[in-house]
Amino acid sequence: MAQFIQTKHGKPVLVNLNQLLSHHLLITGMTGSGKSSTLLSLAEQLQRENHIGIIFDATGEFNHLHDAIIYKLGVNANLPLSQLSVDNIARILSFDASTLYKKLVAAVQSLKINQNIMHQSGTYIKINQELITYNKRVQALRYAGSDYDASKLADQITEEFIQPLENSTANFNFLGQQYNHAEIQKYWDDILHAKLLLSNRHTQKVFGLPHSFANSNQDNETQFDLIYVLKLFSGMKSRHRTLIIDISDIQDDTKTSQLVMDILLKQLLFIRAKSNLRLPVTVLLDEYHRYVPKNAEVMDSGVFKLLREGRKYGLYAVLSTQSPLDLPTQIRGQFGSVLAHRLQDSSEIDSILAKQSRKKLPQLANGDGLLKLYESKKPKLVHVVAPETQHDTDSPRFLMASQDDFHFINQ
Prior knowledge:
Elements: E1 2-6, E2 11-15, H1 17-21, E3 25-28, H2 35-48, E4 52-57, E5 68-72, E6 77-78, H3 86-92, H4 98-116, H5 131-140, H6 153-160, E7 162-163, E8 178-179, H7 181-186, H8 188-198, H9 201-206, E9 224-225, H10 226-233, E10 242-246, H11 254-274, E11 281-285, H12 302-309, E12 315-321, H13 329-332, E13 337-340, H14 346-350, E14 368-372, E15 380-384
Parallel strand pairs: 3-12, 3-13, 4-10, 4-11, 5-10, 6-9, 11-12
Antiparallel strand pairs: 1-2, 1-15, 7-8, 13-14, 14-15
Domain AAA+ ATPase: 21-353
InterPro entries: AAA+_ATPase, HerA-like, HerA_central, P-loop_NTPase
Pfam family, one: DUF87
């Protein structure tokens, strides 16, 4: 059961979790209205019921939740680039041109050959290599490992731009005999961007790439593969029932954070779809307006797929956002239950609740909310039970050197 306090009578209101979460729950409200406290309180109540919860923490506010396992992306966890699909790598590297995509596919295969067949580091040199030899190595990959050094992708892409000689000495039994300098120049801005990105310290830590930056205590901390962590945790029977994935370190990079969230949610859905386990897992997405994809990408986004397909695999979403209008209509329409804290804008209110709520929502105190459950006719006025876990979401206060207030002069 999830517990709220009914404001009108001051009595506890017990809500069945199936009723509250089975069609996903949207929590919304302006800054300081109680969204984070509500999410934290719900996480604690899921723990008490011994249910599995996975929190994607955008702000780092959930790190004090008791009896939780915490992984912080870029510190003690990463999303290994070498284990991602070529499509996802192309998005991370901002490769839009079809030619660069094809070269990226070839580069991944070349690096796999170099590491698993040739047992060499660095890039795989393809100039003056016979086609028949290369094909044998490609076939051998079927029985070898699939790891590769993803930090060398940009360098390897340059190696893929090769062609035969442009005279009578051209040998078409080779992969190529010279670099295609014209094509390399044409795509150099994109290749250079990829080089710089893959050599960036932050990128290396987030995507688990080999690095050579100076050691520090944080850099020496063991990093875990988040995809493996999700696979392990989503079917684990343990007293540690809450997994926190702290992605607050990348909140300043909108594109990267959107991609990371998209990849993680799709991976979680894929893991559950392939598993025979049907333990219910509640996925709590804090401050999701930070990661909203563009409208053109909504239908293929991880959050839309989770909301649309997750329930049949036992995945139930709780999403918090400051304004419901920050969410595209395709996503907003997937929620059966809504808990609305204080909202001022009438268009925001109308997008999730009936117009009769216009008078109540702007006047709600912190922690108060209108709870509209799936298939219920009217929302209930409730106050969320305060979480036991301490968290600080207050805005910084001005410190005054004197006791005087600001003075204004009447005109």
